[in-house]
Amino acid sequence: xxxxxxxxxxxxxxxxxxxxxxxxxxxxxxxxxxxxxxxxxxxxxxxxxxxxxxxxxxxxx
Length: 61
Description:
61 residues; mainly alpha; 3 helices; 69% helix; elongated
């Protein structure tokens, strides 16, 4: 059985993978556009995506 922490870790990994894929596929996009695209896909705030991608605060694994 997955705990909430396990589910959040899986979500954070999926967010980072998506962010990296979009960055790789669209090298001319601004970082803000990539963050917004990722936020829309995962239904999270732009700031949350930024924190997850940079391993900031509670999103540090």
